[in-house]
Prior knowledge:
Helix content is 39%, strand content 14%.
Amino acid sequence: MFDRDVYCSRRARLRMLLGQGLALFLGNDECPMNYADNAYRFRQDSSFLYYFGLDTPGLAAVIDLDEGTETVFGDDPTIEDFVWTGPLPSLRERAAGAGVERTAASSRLGDALAAARSAGRKVHFLPPYRPENKLKLLAWLGVPPERAKDEASVPFIHAVVEQRSVKSPEEIAEIEKAVNVSLDMHLAAMRLARPGVAEARIAAAVREVALAAGGDLSFPTIATVHGEVLHQHAQVDTLGSGRLFLLDAGAETALHYAGDLSTTMPVDPAFTERQKDVFRVVLAAHETAKAALKPGVPHLDVHLAACRRIAEGLKDLGLMKGDLDEAVRQGAHALFFPCGEGHMMGLDVHDMEDLGEVFVGYEGRPKSTQFGLKSLRLARPLRPGFVVTVEPGVYFIPQLIDQWRAEKRFPDFLAYDRIEAYKDFGGIRNEEDVVITDGGHRVLGRRKPLTVEEIEAAVGRG
Length: 462
Ligand code: GLY
Ligand code: MN
C-alpha cells in the first residue's frame, strides 16, 4: 500500500467532487475456478484499491458524503481461518492502514444501504462487472443485474475518472516499475525466440519474470506467430523459420499498477526484406504517434496521424492507393489497422474500462461506429499525468481481406491484387507506455528495442 495519507487525500477529493449521498465501493470476492476453495488469482477492484488500498477479498466501503464518515465493511478473521491462512490482521487494523477509523461487519451493510434508501438518500455505485456484486446490488438496493450498469451513478463515474485519469508521481513511479519488469519479460522472450521453440515456452518464461519481480501478469499474454489475430491468447504453435513472432505482455506490480508492451520479432536471426518493409511502416506510425503526444491534443488526432502514416507507408509498398486523406476518412486503412492506436493505463491495463469507455475516453460523448475507429478506446484531449500506450500496428487478416475483396470495398484505396500476396504475413505491433508531461511526453521505463537493428540484435541469443 501507499502511505495512508495518499488514500485519505484521494477520498477527500472525491468527497468534494461528488457532494451528496452515499458512495458505495464494492470490493471483489474470491472467484472459484472449478470449486469454491480452488479460486482464480484474487484481483481486487481497481477503484477500491485506488481509494482504500486494501487488497483482500470480502470487503466493501461506504463514504457518507453528508455526514463525512467513512466505513469499511468486512469480517474479522477467526481462529479457524488462522489454521488455514496463518495469522491475519483485524479488520480495524487493516482499515487503519488506509486512514479509515470506522469498521463494521459485512452483514450490516445491507441494512445501512436500505436505511439510506428509505430516507430518500442517493446511493452512488459504480458499474459492477462481477456477478456476485450484481447480486449484492439486487439484494441490497433492488437493482436487477441486467440494469445494474445503467443504474450506476454517472456523477460517481465522472468523479472517479477525473481522479484516476491523472496519475500522481507515486503512481507514475509504480507504473514505471511495471514497465521495466514488462521490458525484462520482452527481453527474455527475445532471447528465446528462434525456430523450434514453442509459444508456450516463451509465455512461461515471460510470466516467470513477472512473478519473480513480486507481481504477476497485467493481462493474459499474447505470444503468437499469428500476430494478425489481435487478442490471440492460445499458445499452441511452435515458432517456424520465416515467421514473425508477436509478444504483447505486461507486468502488474504488487500494488497492481500495469505495464503493457508489445514487440514483434523475427523467428530467424534477421527479418526478411518484406518483413523489414512492413516493420518500418509500423515504426514510422509509432514515431508519428509519439511525436503528437502532448497536452491538449485529442488522442483521436494521435490515432488518425498514425492511421495516415500507415496508409502512406502501405501506399509506398503498393498496397494502398489514391487519395490517402479520403482513404483514412472513409476507414479503408482499417483493413490493416482495425483497432485503436493506444489506451489509458494505470491500475488496469485498459484503465477504468469497467467504468465505461465513453466516460473514460470520450468525456461522455458517443463513439464512432466506423469499423476500426469504433475500437479506439481513447479520443479525448490529453492532459499532463495521463499514461497511455502507443501501439499502432499493421495486420494482414486473411478472412477480412477475402471478405472486403469479395464485397469490393474501397477499390479506389486498396490494391487487392498486391495485398493477396500478404495473406500469410501475420501482423506487426510494437508498443510503448508514455506519460503526458507539461511540455509533451516521456516514454516510461528503460529504452525498449524498437528498430529493425535493435530487435535483430536482441533475438535468439538465449
Ligand atoms: N495489451 C492488450 C491490449 O492492449 O489490448
Ligand atoms: Mn495495449
